[in-house]
Amino acid sequence: MDTVEQVERRPWVLRRWPAVAGVAMAAFAAWGMESGADVAPIVTASAFLYLGAAALQRRTAAWPMFAVSFVAVGLGSNVEGFNATWVMLAFAAVLAVYGVIRGALRPPWGLPLQAAALIVLAAAALIAVDANQTVAGVLVAAGLLIHAGWDTYHHRTHRVVAQSMSEFCAVLDTLLALAVLVVTFG
């Protein structure tokens, strides 16, 4: 493990790689976006990562969950009739059952709270897909900004997901929400 002194001597970009990756991912997700509904599944994905890590009771499991959500969102963007939100919800249900079997109902800020957050954010994403452009943009931006606050809280408390994921996600969610608002009202 590196000492604090060794970490502080690293260039900023290496110390803040999750934030840099979040900027890159936000740019990638916003590229070619025509409405907030285009990125609505990312709202679901943001909560899916947390539920997966809570169900598996491993903070680092958020990164493999990100890979799953990345594939699901990519398929949803490119395959007609493939709804990434429903796929992530189905996978989340399996993970939640597994987590309950493994005793992940404690602590309450773990699986129970993450499941509630996923339900709320996925509902916003599903509504946004069928809403008019303004409503979709507001719902998606609000979901992303709320989740950015969620990320910040979890980063500060060192709960549920790895700090690198909460940092990455906070930057991604914030920048993508701003891009959605620009597309919606700009």
- Tell how many strands the DSSP assignment holds: 0
User: Compute the gyration radius: what is it?
Assistant: 16 Å
Beta percentage is under 5%
Largest sheet: none
* Large-scale geometry: globular
Return residue spans where pLDDT drops below 50 for at least 5 consecutive residues.
none
The secondary-structure element order is: HHHHHHHHH
Estimate percent helicity: over 70%
**Whole-number average pLDDT?**
94
Task: Please work out how many helical segments DSSP would assign.
Answer: 9
What is the end-to-end distance? 47 Å
What is the structural class?
mainly alpha
Could you characterize what this model shows?
This protein is mainly α. Helices cover 77% and strands 0% of the residues. The chain is built from nine helices and no strands. The chain has helices at residues 4-9, 12-15, 17-30, 40-56, 62-78, 84-101, 111-130, 133-157, 163-185. α5 packs antiparallel against α6 (84-101), α7 (111-130) runs antiparallel to α8 and α8 (133-157) runs antiparallel to α9 (163-185). It is globular, with a radius of gyration of 16 Å.
Task: Draw up the topology in text.
Elements: H1 4-9, H2 12-15, H3 17-30, H4 40-56, H5 62-78, H6 84-101, H7 111-130, H8 133-157, H9 163-185
Give a concise summary.
The chain is mainly alpha-helical.
